[in-house]
Amino acid sequence: MRSIVYSRTGPSSVLESVERDAASPGAGEVRVRVTVSGVNPTDWKARASTAAPLPFDEVVPNQDGAGVVDAVGSGVDGLEVGDRVWVFLAAHQRPTGTAQEFTVLPAERVVKLPEGIGFDVAASLGVPAMTAHRALTVHEFGPTRLSAGALDGRVVLVQGGAGAVGHAAIQLAVWAGATVIATVSSDEKAALVRAAGAHHVVQYPSPDLAARILEVAPDGVDHIVEVSPSQNAALDVEVIANHGSIAYYANNNGEEFTAPIVASFAKNVRWQGLLLYTVGPEPLAAAAADITAALEAGALPVGEDAGLPLTWFPIDETAAAHDAVESGVTGKVLIRVADDLA
After folding, report:
1. What pLDDT digit, counting tens, does each position of 115-148 carry?
2. Residue 20 phi/psi, 5° resolution?
3. How many CB atoms lie within 10 A of CB 212?
4. Which residues of the chain have pLDDT under 70?
5. Coil, helix or strand for 156?
6. How far is CA 214 from CA 63, 110, 132, 208, 252, in A?
7. How far apart are CA 18 and CA 14, in angstroms?
8. Residue of 31, 115, 181, 204 with fewest CB within 10 Å of its CB?
């Protein structure tokens, strides 16, 4: 089978296309014939990082993807050969991501697709949608699960709404019944978040950003999905409601942040960091189940008309796909591994 691999960390030029034998699934594992591989910032950052030695002699990148179950190991229930699936954290603590024609992974990281959901949607889930789910379910008063109506009466602020996580957060929050405010940096991105379903859009930088948010939510925002705490911490505290949650998942624009202390504790603010790799199996399972329910409801479309432009690359151009994500291309970068995209 064709695989994209790297045996040392560094720039995208360390990626190479090779032929490898497809592995057989062990107990509790399944093998998936990959149709589409999704690329996230975490994928190029893991490949480029020199912070620690490469954990395996050879690594296939990319955590997310979609395809068809090809083989099932012993002890696996609920998945059968021929099932159309989406996968997440394929390369977490394993050398076999989705930038290859077949990948083997634990069954709990493989989720059946509802009927009629395309592989482009499926490969766009994973890290972005599961991060968004977690960010929306850490409020002191819940909910811990998302469903239609679960966020009725709540106001959600999505900082950087045109990113992949922001896009998923908008869609999930709207499906769950919240009023959604999204921040963006341009008119083009404003159009995208409106297409995703945001009810209100505010553009930064702006001296009256807080005032505009509080016009929509006079009592404050209940949930904040934060991509840049170093830039937005003070604003977040200014607009957050009493007992509100600020869930931050990235370090855009800086490695450290400072927040107003008195204003934070006076509002009983919950600052919640989140990382899928360390969040634990229960939140991951809950996210997979709720995201599947949202898919069944038609709540997570992709493409420019849905607010998430797709940029496609063939598998032999995986390095270019990584470069596109690193350069900050708007939307979702997908790799066409096979031709059957239906």
Report:
1. 999 999 999 999 999 999 999 999 999 999 999 9
2. -135, 155
3. 16
4. 341-342
5. strand
6. 38, 41, 23, 10, 24
7. 12
8. 115
